[in-house]
Design a protein that fits this description.
Blueprint (H helix, E strand, L loop, with lengths): L2 E6 L7 H10 L4 E8 L6 E9 L5 H8 L3 E2 L2 E2 L1 E4 L27
Antiparallel strand pairs: 1-3, 1-6, 2-3, 4-5
């Protein structure tokens, strides 16, 4: 079973391939590496996920990568938590209802 890492405090200039290369250069085999980007601007959000290849030790990877520097920033590396099923962000609406929106019962 493959293991997934959360990598935080990434520089905003980091690409998927740069994250992949960083983990490979640290001595770990990578199945995939993804830097999370803002949907509207496409700018990196400062964190990403790395899926380790079969047989890689998750705890050894966390210990080996946590606290390492990438482009002058100290990374935070932990085991990724599973995504909550059915989780989605609320979509707009909701806000303040003005005086004209109040219901009148007379």
């Amino acid at each position: 079973m493959a293991s997934k890492l959360y990598v935080g405090n990434l520089p905003h200039s980091t690409t998927d391939s740069a994250l992949n290369d960083f983990v490979i250069n640290a001595g770990f085999q990578v199945a995939s590496a993804v830097v999370i980007r803002d949907k509207l601007t496409g700018q990196a959000r400062g964190f990403g996920f790395v899926e380790l290849a079969e047989g890689e030790d998750l705890q050894r990877a966390v210990a080996g990568l946590n606290g390492q520097a990438l482009e002058g920033r100290t990374l935070t590396v932990n085991e990724a938590r599973p995504q909550r099923p059915g989780f989605s962000r609320p979509q707009g609406g909701g806000g303040y209802r003005g005086r004209s929106d109040r219901r009148r019962d007379y």
